[in-house]
């Protein structure tokens, strides 16, 4: 039941420095099944794309595991209720979609909310300008919550 979470240290490091973190969600294209690989058959699996729902679930689980670890409890500053994020899909295309909120708010959204692949996510750092909050609030799941967290947790002045 081991799950990789070495990436959480980089996200946490950026968060402590107040920096935004761009997370490019996993793409599995032109991969062979284990059976086909072992048998030397050049048969590939259909493309698969990680959804924001899966990524958010993994991030929140990793945060919770790190918080429950006695050695890392005090080191973790990320929180599902107080960490802002923006999901992006098909950036630059006519059908691009952005959704903003806390990790918890975003993880409660149905998959359809985020649109079709490809997806990326920005975990918002605390070195934030008020215009960034105002601009991103257009895509917020809950605008009042977005602004409240930005003001109370991130220290953004209005």
Write up this protein.
By secondary structure, this protein is an alpha+beta fold. It contains six helices and six strands, in the order αββαβαββαβαα. The strands form two sheets. The protein has a four-stranded antiparallel β-sheet.
Fold topology:
Layout: H1 6-17, E1 21-24, E2 27-28, H2 34-39, E3 48-49, H3 52-68, E4 84-89, E5 97-102, H4 103-107, E6 119-123, H5 130-136, H6 143-152
Antiparallel strand pairs: 1-6, 2-3, 4-5, 4-6
> How would you sum up the global shape?
globular
Measured on Cα atoms, how large is the radius of gyration?
Answer: 18 Å
Percent in strands: 15-25%
Largest sheet geometry: 4 strands, antiparallel
Uncertain residue segments: none
Number of strands: 6
Q: Can you count the helices?
A: 6
* SSE topology string: HEEHEHEEHEHH
Class by alpha and beta content: alpha+beta
The mean pLDDT is 90
- The rounded distance between the terminal residues' Cα atoms is 45 Å
The helicity comes to: 25-40%
Task: Give the strand line-up of the largest sheet.
Answer: 1-6-4-5
């Amino acid at each position: 039941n081991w799950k990789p979470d070495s990436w959480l240290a980089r996200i946490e490091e950026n968060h402590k420095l107040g920096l935004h973190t761009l997370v490019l969600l996993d793409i599995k294209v032109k991969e062979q099944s284990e059976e086909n690989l072992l048998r030397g058959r050049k048969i590939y699996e259909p493309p698969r794309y990680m959804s924001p729902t899966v990524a958010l679930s993994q991030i929140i689980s990793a945060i919770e595991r790190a918080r429950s670890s006695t050695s890392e409890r005090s080191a973790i500053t990320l929180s599902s209720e107080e960490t802002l994020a923006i999901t992006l899909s098909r950036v630059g295309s006519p059908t691009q979609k952005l959704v903003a909120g806390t990790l918890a708010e975003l993880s409660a959204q149905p998959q359809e909310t985020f649109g079709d692949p490809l997806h990326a996510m920005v975990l918002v750092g605390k070195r934030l300008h008020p215009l960034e909050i105002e601009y991103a609030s257009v895509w917020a799941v809950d605008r009042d919550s977005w602004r409240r967290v930005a003001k109370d947790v991130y220290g953004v002045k209005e």
